[in-house]
Amino acid sequence: MKSLKFWFITGSQHLYGEETLREVAEHAEEMVGFFNQQNNICYEIIYKPVVTTPEEILNTMIKANGDVNCAGVITWMHTFSPSKMWINGLKAIQKPMLHLHTQFNKEIPWDTIDMDFMNTNQSAHGDREHGFIFTRMGIKRKVVVGYYQDPKVIERMGKWLNVAAVAYQGADIKIMRLGDNMREVAVTEGDKVEAQIKLGWHVNTYGVGDLVEKMKEVTESQVDDLMEQYKESYTFADGILEDSSQREAVRYQAKVEIALKGMLEEGGFSGFTNTFEDLHGLKQLPGLASQRIMEAGFGFGPEGDWKVAAMVRVMKMISGNKGTSLMEDYTYHLEGGNEAILGAHMLEICPTLAEDKPRIEVHTLGIGGKDAPARLTFSGKEGKAICVSLVDMGGRLRLIILDVEAIKVPYDMPNLPVARVLWKPMPSMLESAEAWIYAGGAHHTAFSYDVTAEEMIDWAELMDIECIHINKSTTIPNLKRELAINELLWKFK
Ligand code: MN
Questions:
Q1: Rounded CA gap, 327 and 448, in Å?
Q2: Are residues 137 and 199 in the same domain?
């Protein structure tokens, strides 16, 4: 993704004369130079010559479309640039668009300001003209407002560029499905053709037997090496390495990890699903193996949930694989005034959420009828996070984002040998759950400390899918109205 670039296009017109246009170009180049020195901007911004005619605008946009490394276009009107000149260019552009509403000059020079200065520093109305034409043409774009050196502006810009780059690269997401959906489950189902058209995701099935065959190629010395890595990265439950059956259970997961990761890498996959209902030939449900593969940056969905697998991958791309995992709303704490949700899964929570060193344990699993699987157990960190669910509404996809505050797990829960996170959802546990249920959100989510709601809203907009954000300002009547309006709106899109 680091080879991706964004083009910076400054609009103007000939009315101002050559000298002003030279000044506009110098300023734009200086701004681009500044952007390229910022740590929060992870992609190179390419300065493009100032555009002043309909032909120049159209040509620049066509070139942007044709450059595979161009992940998006940033526009800014230093001066006034009549927007009818932009119509053909904006009709042509197929890349994500950011309208940066900024000004080269930070403060008004009160003592020296004259009409020349006013005419050169005209973003205040040049960008309004520019905004109108986007809105008139119904073109989606991100608007970021503020002085271009303001750290907040740089941060918002940098985050959007990253999301746009992920959206642009999203077409490469390939999910390997080992087995189908868990029988009779509705919310994890969906239209894979629609997902490929809309989101670019390739979701295809592979036999779990392919994995079993691949595991036969894994050597004992490969497993020995991986066991050494486990010893460096995690602690082991007491006595586990001395007990031959438990040690073998861990070694078995290591074997699954090596074989499955090999299959994913060889096929260019960025995520996978499995299901406990189809483990033919496997001795254990992959637990530690799935956690390790997620930790390496892959998406994962249990029970055949390919939507959550791809969402975990998307959010790992956005966060740079920090603090992001599959999650499931598991059980509630309903003590009045102190309500919380305990999130976990049967086994498969990504160790990037852990507050301390995860621990390898082996326990029987009451579901699936297989041998006791090895897994990593830990508690999640404290802090702000989001839960994200993508559901198929039949004819359209809906993204649901929930703001939560993860809190310290106050008890050891010695009889609960799975990774877990405890959180308080916004605006409150009860209203949040009511809102989530009205919105049709799933029990599986992609959970992240390191991706913001704004980033996911931007992603949904870039993907042109419906988006609902449940947050501290959500009220049930407003949410129900929003859902009702969306029902109509998306029918006519
Ligand atoms: Mn589940």
A1: 9
A2: no
